[in-house]
């Protein structure tokens, strides 16, 4: 099922999400819905609060045309925790909950996280580049933080041109 994506200023987006107690068939169905919803909206990541479920669940899938060895893999992170961050740099990003805008956000170049996988097992991952950026963006959603909160001024938000949301133009399309 494709779900409706909540948009700013929906209050659910500002809530600190609750931990997921266990992996259930309902959770698995939600994960499937989130991937479908994300693909439908040409995003590369989605956090459960964005579809109205205030729980600590994130999905990420970098477009397979992305020049990135991590592209094309479906990542599901349950109760993720950020362990380590690399060097920081400015990266362009947007958010499906604030359509039509993007901005340069300072993010760590690499990130290491631990999480529970769909089998209910603990797992860890070291990510770099776009995947690391997406992880930081999506984990922020679980804290009720949106990407523009990192900006010194909302004037730094830039409007995306109408044709900017295109999977073939990854620099223009980092809505997560
Ligand atoms: Ni987002």
Report on the structure:
The structure is a single chain. The protein is an alpha+beta fold and 176 residues long. 17% of the residues lie in helices and 28% in strands. The chain contains two helices and eight strands. The chain has a five-stranded antiparallel beta sheet. Strand 6 and strand 7 form a beta hairpin. It is globular, with a radius of gyration of 15 Å. Nickel (II) ion binds next to helix 2.
Descriptors:
globular, single chain, alpha+beta, 28% strand, 5-stranded antiparallel sheet, binds nickel (II) ion
Number of discrete helical segments: 2
What structural class should be given to the helix and strand makeup? alpha+beta
Backbone CA Rg: 15 Å
Strand content: 25-35%
What pattern of helices and strands is seen along the backbone?
HEEEEEEEHE
Mean pLDDT: 91
- Find the count of extended strands (DSSP E, 2+ residues): 8
Q: Widest sheet: strand order?
A: 1-2-3-6-7
């Amino acid at each position: 099922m494709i779900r409706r994506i909540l948009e700013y200023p929906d209050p659910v987006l500002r809530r600190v999400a609750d931990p997921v107690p266990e992996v259930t068939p309902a959770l698995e169905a939600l994960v499937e819905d989130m991937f479908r919803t994300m693909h439908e909206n040409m995003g590369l990541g989605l956090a459960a609060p964005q579809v109205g479920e205030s729980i600590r669940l994130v999905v990420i899938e970098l477009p397979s045309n992305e020049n990135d060895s991590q592209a094309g893999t479906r990542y599901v992170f349950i109760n993720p925790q950020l362990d380590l961050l690399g060097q920081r740099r400015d990266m362009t990003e947007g958010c499906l909950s604030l359509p039509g805008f993007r901005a340069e956000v300072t993010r760590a170049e690499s990130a290491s996280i631990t999480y529970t996988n769909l089998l209910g097992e603990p797992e860890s991952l070291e990510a770099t580049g776009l995947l690391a950026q997406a992880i930081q963006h999506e984990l922020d959603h679980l804290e009720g933080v949106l990407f523009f909160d990192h900006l010194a001024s909302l004037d730094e938000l830039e409007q995306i041109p109408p044709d900017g949301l295109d999977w073939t133009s990854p620099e223009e399309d980092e809505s997560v």
